[in-house]
Write a structure and sequence with these properties.
393 residues, alpha/beta, TIM Barrel, 11 helices
């Protein structure tokens, strides 16, 4: 176990510098525009829904595809109390970018506990070996290290099993260099109409919380409320809430859409790289899955599944061009896709096209795209690849 704790501003051999991305040289007109004002507005909506709780802005997975650093800065400026990441690497990236709020590592995967100290990252722990490794790191550094404990209340992913929680706490009490200052769990069904499982999760969480208080742990933050619970289950707000999707302007399910005034923060745009007329009967793209039924105008877009456009949108997806909905024509390719713009006869090379967002009186949101793909908005956002620039607007 490597426990050297060098200067926080020095380079670390454990974490290589970020790879250069293709969009550092801008040629292609494809970009994801991130409305930082909307991000701040959505955080304030979280505060309105949970006025007595602190707010952890979850910025894992590159800020749900919105840009991790960009989003974290917006949430810090809007007053987020904590930031949540899945990976140590994500926390390191935020610290190197100058983010100062406390950061909790929700994924609980550690190999170098010295990195937690070096970059002031709070670990989530749930196994005795994690406690022991953290104790060793604290002893070598001459520090008492704070951690939050994860309790599994029904998600079945990571966390201490309720039956083992007493033994876990007993072991934690024996350690001189570890303080358990937080208790967390994660809902499996808060966004579903499943009140029985959600109620059981809350009951188990409350039991764990009482056990920590009764045993004298310095418990400062009990937190379990995700976006759905922030909007719909005020009794679960406890000391802190951990919203994710709602911060980016989307509700976790349609039934939540009226519970908060959320503003979508991401618009995904590109522009025509080619426009041509084709005769009736002309096939388009791989497999000839689309054939023109009439003389048609076809626009080619420089964006494809390597950028995150789901291949399952072949012949079922739509884009906005000239303020109108235009269908995807044929198989989505790795770097390009074609659309039927016959009803936009004025379209020309360079005209902006919207994949997600608004144009004129029309709008395509992540929920619609997800429905067409048979998935959820989270996946649509997170699948927008790293070669698509995130541009703050």
């Amino acid at each position: 176990m490597h426990l050297e704790i060098p200067d926080v501003n020095a380079g670390s051999p454990s974490i290589p510098p970020p790879a250069r991305r293709s969009h550092e040289l801008r040629v292609r007109p494809t970009e994801a525009r991130i409305d930082t004002g909307a991000l701040g507005h959505n955080l304030r909506e979280v505060r309105r829904c949970a006025p007595t709780a602190r707010v952890m802005a979850v910025v894992k997975a590159d800020g749900y595809g919105h840009g991790g650093i960009l989003s974290a800065r917006a949430f810090e400026e809007a007053g987020a109390d904590w930031l949540g990441v899945a990976l140590v690497e994500e926390g390191v990236e935020l610290r190197r970018a100058g983010l100062v709020r406390p950061i909790l590592v929700l994924g609980a995967q550690y190999t170098d506990y010295g990195l937690l100290l070096k970059y002031r990252l709070t670990p989530l722990v749930y196994r005795a070996d994690q406690l022991d490794a953290l104790e060793a790191a604290g002893r070598m550094a001459g520090m008492v290290l704070d951690a939050h404990v994860k309790l599994d209340t029904g998600m079945g992913r990571i966390g201490v099993q309720p039956a083992d929680f007493g033994a876990f706490l007993t072991h934690a009490k024996s350690l001189a260099h570890v303080r358990l200052t937080g208790l967390a769990t994660h809902f499996a069904n808060a966004d579903l109409r499943d009140p029985a499982h959600t109620a059981r999760a809350v009951e188990l969480f409350q039991t764990g919380r009482r056990a920590m208080v009764e045993q004298g742990f310095p418990l400062e933050l009990a937190h379990l409320a995700n976006s759905a619970a922030v909007m719909d289950l005020p009794a679960t707000h406890f000391d802190m809430v951990r919203p994710g999707l709602m911060l980016y302007g989307a509700a976790p399910a349609p039934r939540f859409s009226g519970l908060a005034n959320l503003k979508p923060a991401l618009s995904w745009v590109t522009a025509f790289s080619h426009v041509k007329k084709v005769a009736a009967g002309t096939p388009i793209s791989y497999g000839h899955k689309w054939v023109a039924r009439r003389e048609s105008l076809i626009g080619t877009l420089p964006v494809g599944y390597a950028d995150g456009v789901r291949r399952s949108l072949t012949n079922v997806g739509v884009v906005l061009a000239g303020g109108k909905r235009c269908g995807i024509a044929g198989t989505v390719c790795m770097d390009m896709m074609m659309v039927d713009i016959t009803d936009v006869p004025e379209a020309k090379i360079g005209d902006e096209v919207v994949l997600i967002g608004a144009q004129g009186h029309e709008q395509i949101d992540a929920h619609e795209v997800a429905d067409r793909c048979g998935t959820i908005p989270y996946e649509i956002f997170c699948n927008i690849s790293a070669r698509v620039p995130r541009v703050a607007v």
